[in-house]
Amino acid sequence: MERPGPSEVxxxxxxxxxxxxxxxxxxxxxxxxxxxxxxEAMFEQTRRxxxxxxxxxxxxxxxxxxxxxEKELRRQNEDIEPTSSGAHVVRxxxxxxxxxxxxxxxxxxxxxxxxxLIGPPLPLKMMEEPSNHIEEDILGPLPPPLYEEVEEDDxxxxxxxxxxxxVQKIPDSHEITLKHGTKTVSALGLDPSGARLVxxxxxxDVKFWDFAGMDASFKAFRSLQPCECHQIKSLQYSxxxxxxxxxxxxxxxxxxxxxxxxxMECIKGDQYIVDMANTKGHTAMLHTGSxxxxxxxxxxxxxxxxTVRTWEVENPRKQRSVFKPRTMQGKKVIPTTCTYSRDxxxxxxxxxxxxxxxxxxxxxxxxxxxxxxAHDPGxxxxxxxxxxxxxxxxxxxxxxxxxLWDIRQFNKPLFSAxxxxxxxxxxDCCFSPDDKxxxxxxxxxxxxxxxxxxxxxxxxxxxxxxxxxTDASVVRCLWHPKLNQIMVGTGNGLAKVYYxxxxxxxxxxxxxxxTQRKAKQAETLTQDYIITPHAxxxxxxxxxxxxxxxxxxxxxxxLKSHKPEPPVAGPGRGGRVGTHGGTLSSYIVKxxxxxxxxxxxxxxxxxxxxxxxxxxxxxxxxxxSKTQPKTMFAQVESDDEEAKNEPEWKxxxx
Length: 654
Prior knowledge:
By secondary structure, the protein is α+β, with helices and mostly antiparallel strands. Helices cover about 25% and strands about 20% of the residues.
């Protein structure tokens, strides 16, 4: 087979792509001529377009300047009354001269822009400079024009006005009250979506509240005691919302799911080991706990055994890592609260000696930051919370203070506020969703005022607002960023939700609009209906259409509607025996220990069957019929006959 020559190849290319070759190469475009681009023509077209746009922009800007000048002149005319017509002439001349100068400048700038400018228009400041300072070949974007700076300044002024009034963003126009119990609500938790609220208290109960499924009666749909007889100290939903961390007064934290079923329980450590890092879990009472904000299934707890431990849900038999707070002299110190930073890289803990220690999550030996006198020694710091930007830390101390810290310069507090009494070891503080306010609660003695929710501005730390909650202490507070609603736990067993119909989303707004369901009376009196779908028609019961109709039918039935007779008090009457009490002894006396004595002769009772046994022997007599001797009874004589038969010597002796 001969190869085709060059002429044949060119002929095939001229005629078109070979279909066989396209099939062989795997794509249909093989053999087509590539498209060519003239780069010089494209650059020239781009330059002309840019010059035209620059010219139009400059003309529009000149018109705006001219209009602004006319407005200023009109304002001046209104302020200064004209005294003569010469003033008008001068103004007209000035206007015409300004127009002439502006037109000449526009012509010059347009002429120069046609030769030099490429791209977006120049700002006014650069236009006022001589043209020889501008490079001939300007490529790329230029600095923004001056009017944009003015608009930015206006926006800054608007932001400053909003910053001046952060109180307007507080959602406190409406409130609902959830009745948890009679004892202190010591824990609050809200899932990330804001659909469910969970509360825990000193009464060992954990209650679940569903805003979407709750009506105006505000009743919890589930209540349980996950830790038996231990007070609930902390409740928190995971970042995915499918698990809840339960921290109680015991040494073992629990994780339950959204419906209250247990997922895992941390192991208890060996309390006889000196080094707490060698134990598998906590050995003393827990204080609080927190989920990792980024990693699913990781959480942290702190305890009276002077350790902060991190855990994983998949491995409940041993902690992940152990952090041991120490004083400056290297002695043990008990952490009272702990939390993660917003990015999860830092772990902060406040201790009983008044110090605040911050570790890197992956470095358990030495703390990254350590401030030894953050609060008064011997007072339990109840809460530490990071801001949403992650640079500021707020601490709520047992010395009735609230302090703000910058972790980038952790050598002194930024601000400090005093006069905030607290009597609970879990009093909260939190940041607003926009990071401009800090919220905390105050405690009061019973009957000595009302507990308050106090708001501080973060920038100046001024006490800008406060809300009177109830006549008891405010223990827990939670400001949800998505719902924009504030949840508060109080010392008298109430959980309150504050919201604003215009500023808040969902949450409490869903259940307020629902009317309270009417309780169905005497629903238990109806007969149970058994559904048998495969029963024969003759055995099939008619289906109950409504409860009300069935109740009406049962009321007409004398048997079903018969009222039980009350027990008879005192002696019996009407054929009924009177009751003598409701105790067991009275029941025994009445029914069992009755007097059943029989005064009849027992010998007569036995001999009553002697005639029948003799006539028809069945049990005993047949067995001894052959061996039994014949019965012979002795004859009994009377007393007179015995006296006659006595011998003579006895009579003489008598």
